[in-house]
Amino acid sequence: MKISFNWLKDYIAIEDGPYDLAKKLTESGFEVEEVIPSVQSFSGVVVGRVDSVEKHPDADKLSLCEVFDGEATNRVICGAPNVKKGQLVPFAKLGAVLPQGFKIKKAKIRDVESTGMICSKEELSLEKSSDGIWVLEESLPVGLDFYSHLAKQQDHILEIAITPNRPDCLSFIGIAREVSAITGKEVTLPSAPIKEDKSKPIDSHISIHIHDKEGCPRYAGRVILDVVLSPSPRWMQERLESVGIRPINNIVDITNYVLVEYGHPLHAFDLSEIKGAEIHVRKSDLNEVFITLDGKERHLPTDTVMICDKERAVAIGGIMGGLNSEVSEGTRNILLESAYFKPSRIAQSGRRLGLSTEASQRFERGADPNGVTAAINRAASLISSLAGGRVVSGICDVYPHPIEPARIFFRPQRVNHLLGSDLNQTTILNTLKRLQLDYKDNHIIAPTYRVDLKMEADIIEEVARLVNYSNLPSRKETTIVYELPHQKTDQMLGFLRRMLLELGLTEVLTNSMIREKEAQYFTEEKAVSILNPISDDMTTMRPSLLPGMLMTVSYNLNRHQPNLRFFEIGRIFKQDSNNPLPAQPYALCVVLTGDRSVPTWNTTKEEIDFFDIKGYLESFFRKIFLDNAQIFLYDKSLYLNAKETIAIQIDQQVVGYCGKVKDEVTGIFDLKKPVYAFHLELDDLLPKLMLSRIFEPIPRFPHVEMDFAILVDKKILASQVLKYIKNIGGNLLHNVEIFDIFEGGMNMSADQKSLALRLRFQSKERTLNDTEVNTIFKEIITKTTQEFNATLRK
C-alpha cells in the first residue's frame, strides 16, 4: 500500500517526519518497506521556453527545437510528439545530472548536434512512463531552477506491507487510525457536505432488489444528475498519481480517490443504461457470459454475484463493471454504487475468473459493511463539487440483516499471563481504547472494519504491538515442546508402513507430477492437469502411484539391480465434480519384479509370478488383521493383465486390484521384464481396519484335524465354501483351510472342480472325544453338500 505522507496529514496531525513515522509504524506491526521522496535529487534542470520547432532534416519523427534557458538559446533534438512552440518545459542543460545518474552531454543525431534535453516526468523519476514531454504552467519564470521549485512541494511515499488480515489499512483513514493509536492524536474524517435536490426522491429514479442475500448482505445507491465529465482537478490527479493510480476523468477519479481514502470500493454506472431503472443482485446463471470493462468476454463460474438491471447483467459484483453500462463522455446521469459483498464469494469468483482488481482485493479480504454510507456520501459530495452534479435526495440502501460489531470475550488479567508483562488493567484498557475497542461486560466491542479480531488472543496481540514488543520482558531460555500429537490418519499410515517393511519391502518416494501420456493409462477420467507445469515431464498430477513406481523400477533395472520389491504410500489426484480442487485420497502400491529368490548352487532360478504378488497381498492383510477381504477375478483393469488380475473387495466395496502389469504399459517405461503389482485405495480401506485386537494364549488341549473333499460347480468360489463352513461349524471348529484344488480328474465333469478341506477342532477348556468331533464333522459335510449341491468324494 502506497501512502502519501502529505496526503495523510489531511486526516491526522503528524509531528514526526516521514522516516520517524515509518519507524513507529514498523514497530507497531506495519512494516514500512521503503520511504521514497516524491522528487528525486537532480541538478542542472531549469524552466526553458521552446522558441521554435522544425522538422529534423533527416528523421520524420524527430523535431529540431530552439530552447531558451534564461541565459542562452540551445539547439535541441526532441522525439516527443507533443512539443510545440511557446511551451514552458523542464530543460536539462549540458552537464545536468538526472535522478538516475544520467549526465547530459553534447550529442549528434543524424548529423545534427543537440545541446541539452527537454524532459518528461519519466526522465525526472516522477512517473513510471510518459507519453511525451512535461508541459509546465505558463506562470513559471524562464530559467528557474526546477529542482528547487519541485522541492517546495516535496512529499514522501511510504510503501507499507499490509498483511491479508488487515484490509481496513488498505486506506488512508485506516493508516490514520493506526497513527492515532500510536501517537494519541485524533483522526479527522473528511467532510462530506451534500446539498440534495429534493424535487424528486431517489425512489423515482432507481429501485434495488437483493436476491442473493448471502453473497451481498448490503447494497446502496445514490443518483447524481447533470454531471459533466472532464479531467479532474490537478490536485486530485497528483494525489492519485502519487499512490500509483492513473487519472482518467473526474467521475472515475473520484471513485478511486474515495477507494484509497476510505478503503471502500465504489462503482459508477451510466444511469441511462440501467434498463427499467432497477438493480437486481443475483447469482450467476449456468454458463452465463459477461463482457467486462476491459472488453473481455468472461465465462462466469457458478455462485458469482451479479449486478443486473431489469434485462441484463451490468457488473460482476465486487470485481469489475460491465462494458454495457460504463461512464462515457455522453454520460449525464449516474448511479453510484456502494455495497458489501461476502469475502469468500468474491475470492472464489475472482480466482476462477483469473481476475484481480483493486476492488476485489479489498472485498475478498473484508470491507466494512457499516462503512457503505460514509463512502458513498463522500463520493457524492465530491461529484457535486467537481463535476457539477445534482445529488438526488436520499440513499436507496437495502440492508435486510444489519451486521453488528463483534463481541469478543476478554479477560484483562489474561494479557500479562500470555505476554509475561506486568501491565495494570487501566493501561491495558486505555491502550485498546486508542484502537476504538470498547470494553463492556467482560467483552471487547470490535468495530466492523476490524475483521481480524475474532478471539481473545487477537485482542492481546493488539495490546502487545501497541505497547511495543521491545518493551515486553524476554527470557534467556524458553522450553519448546517439539512433539506434536499425531493425527489418526498419520498413525494408521505409519502402522501400514511398518507392516510393509516387516514383509521385506523397500519404501520409495516418487514424484506426484508425471507426463500426460503416462497418466492416461491409469484413469478412465480426464487426469488433473497443471496450469503452469515446470517441465514437459511434469504436466499432470498422478491418478495412481503405479506410474512413478514403474519409473523407479526402470531406473533400477537399467543400473543392474534385477530383483526389486518396492512399496509406496502417498496421495493420488482425481477430478472432483463438486469442488474446483481435485480430490487427493491416499493410496498404497506394491510392485515386484525379478527372481523369487537369489539362485545358489542347490537351487534353480525362478521368476516371480502372479502367486508371489498375491502372497504378499495376503501376508499384508494378515499383518493388519484384515480377515474379511474377498477376491475375485477381474478382467477390466486399464493397466493390469485381464488373465492375471483379481479385485479386492471388503464389505461389498472394491478397494483395490492385484495382478500383472500389462506389457503395453510396462513398454511405456522401457521395461522388458514382467512386473506384478497391487494398488489399494487407503481412504476406502482404513475405515474398515480393526486394530484393537485381543490376543489369546495358545490352547493347552490337543486339537483334532479331519479332512474331506467335495466336487462343486466351477462358478462357486472357494471363499464362499470356507465362509459357510465357518458360520455353521460352532465354537469347537477352530480353523478351516483348503489344501487342494484341481480340475479335470477322473469321475469329474468339465464344469466341476474338487475342493479338499482340512478342519481343525479344538477346545480351550478340555480334550475333545471322537464322538462329539465326528458328530460335528458329519453335520458340516451334510449341510455343505446340500448348500452347494456338491458331491462328497470318497
Task: Give your account of this protein's structure.
By secondary structure, the chain is an alpha+beta fold. The protein has six domains: 2-38 and 156-183, 2-Layer Sandwich (Phenylalanyl-tRNA Synthetase, Chain B, domain 1), CATH 3.30.56; 43-151, Beta Barrel (OB fold (Dihydrolipoamide Acetyltransferase, E2P)), CATH 2.40.50; 196-398, Phenylalanyl-tRNA Synthetase, Chain B, domain 3 (3-Layer(bba) Sandwich), CATH 3.50.40; 406-467, Phenylalanyl-tRNA Synthetase, Chain B, domain 1; 488-688, Bira Bifunctional Protein, Domain 2 (BirA Bifunctional Protein, domain 2); 704-792, Alpha-Beta Plaits, CATH 3.30.70.380. The protein is built from 20 helices and 39 strands. A hairpin with a 2-residue loop joins strand 25 (438-440) and strand 26. The longest helix is centred in the C-terminal third of the chain and has 18 residues, at 770-787.
Describe the structure in brief.
This protein has 794 residues and is an alpha+beta fold.
List the helices and strands and how they pair.
Blueprint: E1 2-4, H1 5-8, H2 18-27, E2 32-37, E3 43-55, E4 63-68, E5 73-78, E6 88-97, E7 107-109, E8 112-114, E9 117-118, H3 146-151, E10 156-160, H4 172-183, E11 196-201, E12 207-210, E13 218-225, H5 234-242, H6 250-262, E14 266-270, E15 278-283, E16 289-291, E17 297-299, E18 305-308, E19 313-316, E20 320-321, E21 334-340, H7 343-353, H8 358-365, H9 372-386, E22 390-393, E23 396-398, E24 406-409, H10 412-419, H11 425-433, E25 438-440, E26 443-446, H12 456-467, H13 488-502, E27 506-507, E28 513-514, H14 516-519, E29 540-541, H15 546-557, E30 564-571, E31 586-593, H16 610-623, E32 629-633, E33 640-650, E34 653-661, H17 663-668, E35 676-681, H18 682-685, E36 704-713, H19 718-728, E37 733-742, E38 752-761, H20 770-787, E39 791-792
